[in-house]
Structures are given as structure tokens and as C-alpha cells.
Design brief:
Layout (H helix, E strand, L loop, with lengths): L1 H34 L6 E5 L3 E6 L3 H21 L8 E6 L2 H9 L13 E4 L2 E5 L10 H20 L5 H11 L6 H4 L7 H4 L4 H6 L2 H16 L1 H8 L5 H5 L3 H14 L6
Helix pairs in contact: 1-3, 2-4, 4-5, 5-9, 9-10
């Protein structure tokens, strides 16, 4: 009788353990791509400052990205007043799906927006190839977006605590991604609270790329690029760098948007 009870207890505890093991295995499989950033059948192009990994068969697209980053990286480093030290790792993928699963695992395939073509994580650049067919993007816009991610990578090395709005404003501005009317026409001017969001989807849906571009443009034209860089590098808060509160700067910016006919309040 005792032996039967022991067996029942073993069976009772065995099932939850099996379920737990299955769940852990699924979690490992789901997140494994995040740690395997190199594309399948990876090839490499590199110099002292760019270390680019790409998929076999995408030599043409990878070469375009590599040449662009080599050409522009020194200039952007100079504009940000930051010294180049270690090389930047770049990963180029043939498909959006390959990029997406490196973001947060296979679950990302269900939530990644159709326009998503790249990102920067911990100073690394992850992009689809400029030869990838992507909704709302062209070969040239993907190359320009690569410069956007390059700025993110450099900003991370300068000040990893910089806000999402500021970070993207600098990236959009320095990559010369001048907003089109459609980028802001359907969105009202974000509030200060909106500008503090760290949610990438919310940022994109509120027209954050366009409005952050105009924010950096306003600060550059009004206070000078040196002050923009000083704030971006964390050398002081709004009062210390611009001699005004964030609210005062925000109100001035809204007036500026009105003057250039971008006022959706």
C-alpha cells in the first residue's frame, strides 16, 4: 500500500516537472536567436572602425552599406565631438524576419511593424539589406536608415542614458531624414510626457521620428550645435546647457513649429 502511494506521488510531481522542462525548452528556443546575431552563412567585411557581418549571396548590398558607413562614420563622430575607438559591429540580414527574431526572439515575428528595417542594440547595428523588398521603403531609404542606426550606435557610446526622443532626433537629423508631410500630418505635437516615452511603438505611432527631427533642428538653429552636443553627452541639464527649463524650450519649439507651418495642436 505504501509503495502504491509513493508511486502516485512520483507520478503527481513528474507531470509538472515535465511541463516545466517543456516550457523552459521553448523559452530557450524562442530567445536563442537574440544571442546568435550573426546571419546564417555569415561573411565579413571589416576595417579599423566597421566590422560588418552579412549573409552569403548579399555581397552587393553589404558592400553598399559598408562603403557608406566607412565614408560617413568619421564625419558623424566629428559632429558629435566623440573619439572613435573600438569598431562598430554591423549585422545585415536578407529578410525582415531574420532581423526581427534577433530583436527579441521568434515572438517578435508577431509584433514587429511592417516598416521595421533596423535597430541598434548596445552599440551594435542590425539592418535588413538595402536589396530587401520592404513595404514603405526603398533601396535608398534603407541605406539612409543605416546612417540613422550609426548615429544611435555612436550616441550609445557617448551617453547611453540619453532619452529615446533625443536619441532618435539626433539620428534622424544627422542622417538627413527630412520628414515628409505624411510623417507628421496625422499626428498632433507630442506633449512633454509623450517626449519622455521609451516605448518604441508609441514613439513611432505618435510621429516621433518627424517631431524629434524638428526638435533637434530647432535647438540647432536657435542655440547652436555645440549646445545640442553638450546636452546629448550629458554635460548638463536644460538649465545648465540652454539656460532655460525644459518647459520653456518646449513652448518655444511649439511656436517654431507654428512658424514653419507644422502645428497640429
Amino acid at each position: 500500500m505504501k509503495e502504491g502511494k509513493i508511486m502516485n506521488k512520483k507520478v503527481k510531481y513528474k507531470k509538472p516537472i515535465i511541463v516545466l522542462c517543456i516550457l523552459l525548452a521553448l523559452l530557450v528556443v524562442q530567445t536563442l536567436p537574440v544571442f546568435l546575431m550573426k546571419p546564417l552563412a555569415s561573411r565579413e567585411m571589416k576595417n579599423d572602425f566597421i566590422n560588418l557581418n552579412y549573409q552569403k549571396g548579399d555581397e552587393a548590398g553589404a558592400s553598399e552599406v559598408f562603403d557608406l558607413l566607412v565614408e560617413k562614420s568619421e564625419l558623424i563622430y566629428k559632429r558629435m565631438n566623440h573619439v572613435r575607438k573600438e569598431p562598430i559591429d554591423v549585422y545585415i540580414y536578407k529578410t525582415q524576419a531574420s532581423l526581427a527574431i534577433r530583436e527579441a526572439g521568434f515572438i517578435t515575428l508577431a509584433i514587429a511593424p511592417p516598416w521595421h528595417i533596423g535597430d541598434s542594440h548596445n552599440g551594435n547595428i542590425m539592418m535588413v539589406s538595402p536589396n530587401t523588398k520592404v513595404k514603405s521603403h526603398t533601396h535608398d531609404s534603407i541605406l539612409t536608415a543605416t546612417l540613422h542606426e550609426l548615429v544611435h550606435s555612436i550616441v550609445y557610446r557617448m551617453n547611453s542614458d540619453l532619452s529615446y526622443f533625443w536619441d532618435n532626433g539626433l539620428a534622424t537629423y544627422l542622417a538627413d531624414q527630412v520628414p515628409k508631410t505624411d510623417d507628421y500630418d496625422i499626428n498632433k505635437i507630442p506633449s512633454i510626457d509623450d517626449m519622455h516615452t521609451e516605448d518604441g511603438l508609441k514613439f513611432g505611432n505618435m510621429g516621433g521620428y518627424a517631431y524629434s527631427y524638428f526638435y533637434i533642428q530647432y535647438l540647432d538653429k536657435t542655440y547652436g550645435w555645440d549646445k545640442v552636443v553638450a546636452y546629448a553627452k550629458g554635460e548638463g541639464d536644460y538649465n545648465e546647457v540652454f539656460n532655460k527649463t525644459e518647459k520653456e524650450i518646449y513652448n518655444e519649439w511649439c511656436e517654431y513649429l507654428n512658424k514653419i507651418n507644422i502645428n497640429k495642436e
